[in-house]
Amino acid sequence: MQIEKYWLLALVIACFTYESACKKASPQKSSPPVLESRAKMLKRADSMELATNYTAPSFDTMAYYASGYAKIMCSAVFVSKLDPLFAAYNVGGFVSPFESRSLMGTPIIDTVLKTVTITLPNGERRMAKYLGDHCQGCVSLPVGSNMVFYKPQKILPLIPDGENIDWPMGEKITESISPGINQLKINQALDAAFEGAGMTAAFVVTHKGKLIAERYGESINKNTPLESWSMGKSLTATLLGILIHQGYYALDQAAPIPEWQSPGDDRAKIKIEDILHMSSGLRFRAPQDPDFDASLGYPDHLYVYTGAINSFEWAATRPQQWPPNKVGRYRNSDPVLANYLIRLAVEKKGEDYHSFPQRALFDKLGIRTMVMEADPYGNFLTQGYELASARDWARLGNLYLQKGNWNGENILDEAFIKFVSTLAEPWVQDGRPIYGGFFWINGDESRPIPKDSYMMLGAGGQSVTIIPSHDLVIVRMGHYKGAEAGTKSLNNAYKLILEAVPAKNVQ
To answer: Quick one: which H or E segment has residue 336?
Structure first.
């Protein structure tokens, strides 16, 4: 039996999984104002579309789902230390829809070889391998291969163990809660965050850098690295921002992607700021596209996760769909290319690419749990394949709250902080004031938080919310299946926290 025979089923599964995207594409389920706005957005994009050819990834959808399933299970078991049965039913639905898992064999977890194998109905197998503690997590392997195409590196923190070091550089909490904060409301917020079916795994709140509230779900603790998904895009922006601060790049310079440097290649006009704004204009189909059509093939947005390919090469060789800085689309082409730029700069200056995040960022902030996963060629896939504890995400959020300064050192330029937290013009022109520079913006005030808030967001209900007007950082992490209910719980928690913590101008 050939995998292609499952394509109709795969389309149904894809539509179910990406319900929000499908709703946008379904006139019957949208109100007239939404339809009008969508039609205007698509008409605007069509007016600027370029006549370029595009080849979609092969339509082996079920094979890709199996690849994603193997990787998700590998990370859940070997990195997060979750129960395998729990993970199979609740974790990582983005690249391996839960509905598809019942069509595959039970995951075979080899604790000696540190592999997870998934068998398709036709007998084909897909495998993921854990590369070892303090290495690059788990990786999806190509068919027929049992190893990656680079030498995995063990990257240990150079900072001391944090258990006996005060927060934020360590894990010891000694400071009392700040004066003027309503502790009762904070406790109620914690209760709200864990109410219902949201499957909240971790909840952390800091005020002026002090940790004022935290709670964890069953089998989770302050050191547990959890699925983080697209919060990794904001991490990628941070690493690129460090290189900008160090003078290796500038926001307004043309992105020096080697594949774009041939004479007459219009992609050479794409600027680094365009990439960070998700407005490069590359053809890179994603389920989040307002006109996504699953019948056209497996989306590139997921293929860079599950295809076991050189993700940098795939993104860099996509053709142009629109001129840069014209249309905003949430596509993994741009964070993959940002990671490519990071690798190019780090290796050009003679440093080790895989240890760069630990040395340039994590050691400075006291981050010890972050696991950045890679493709089989060693390219970081931190558009979504990274895991870290809620406390470590709170540390990263506080770097932004503190305008890029940590312990007296400027790690990021304040101008860069302003850039990522400001609405991207192509998105505004599309009628969607919601995106900045690999950060989400509350520009449409759809969330019950101040308009100055900006967020790292990831599939499955992952979030780091930075609220400068209240000196707050709020981290919510949960298991994927509880995403919808978890969002409702988070909104309730937001309201209580804002009632508990006065704004800066309130005495």
So the answer is: helix 333-348
- What is the arrangement of strands in the sheet containing 454-458, beginning at the earlier edge strand? 210-216, 200-207, 472-478, 462-467, 454-458, 440-441
For every one of its 507 residues, what pLDDT tens digit does the chain have, with 9 covering 90 and above? 333 333 333 333 333 333 333 333 333 344 566 777 899 999 999 999 999 999 999 878 999 999 999 999 999 999 999 999 999 999 999 999 999 999 998 999 999 999 999 999 999 999 999 999 999 999 999 998 989 999 999 999 999 999 999 999 999 998 777 788 999 999 999 999 999 999 999 999 999 999 999 999 999 999 999 999 999 999 999 999 999 999 999 999 999 999 999 999 999 999 999 999 999 999 999 999 999 999 999 999 999 999 999 999 999 999 999 999 999 999 999 999 999 999 999 999 999 999 999 999 999 999 999 999 999 999 999 999 999 999 999 999 999 999 999 999 999 999 999 999 999 999 999 999 999 999 999 999 999 999 999 999 999 999 999 999 999 999 999 999 999 999 999 999 999 999 999 998 744
Tokens of 370: 């972050």
Q: How far apart are CA 366 and CA 368, in angstroms?
A: 6
Q: Determine contact, residues 233/420, Cβ cutoff 8 Å.
A: no
User: Which H or E run includes 81?
Assistant: none
Beta bridge partners of 455: 440, 465
For residues 500 and 181, the answer to whether their CB atoms sit within 8 Å is yes
Phi-psi region of 342 (alpha: psi -120 to 50; beta: other; left: phi over 0): alpha
Report CA-CA distances (Å) from 484 to 19, 174, 489.
Answer: 11, 35, 9
- Sequence-separated (6 or more) residues with CB below 8 Å from residue 12: none
CA distance 357 to 263: 34
Q: How many residues belong to the chain?
A: 507
Greatest CA separation found in the chain? 70
Name, in order, each residue with C-beta under 8 angstroms of 117's C-beta and a sequence gap of 6 or more.
70, 107, 108, 110, 125, 126, 127
Q: Which two tokens stand for residue 380?
A: 């970081």
For residue 118, give every residue at least 6 positions away whose Cβ sits within 8 Å of its Cβ, in sequence order, or none.
Answer: 66, 67, 69, 70, 73, 104, 105, 107, 108, 125, 126, 127
Distance CA 476, CA 447 (A): 14
Look up residue 313 and give its amino acid.
E
Query: What DSSP string describes 252-266?
Result: TSBP--GGG-STT-G
- Residue 423 is which amino acid? L
**Measured at the alpha carbon of residue 255, what is the angle toward residues 253 and 259, in degrees to the nearest 5?**
150
What's the CA gap between 398 and 337, in Å, rounded?
Answer: 26
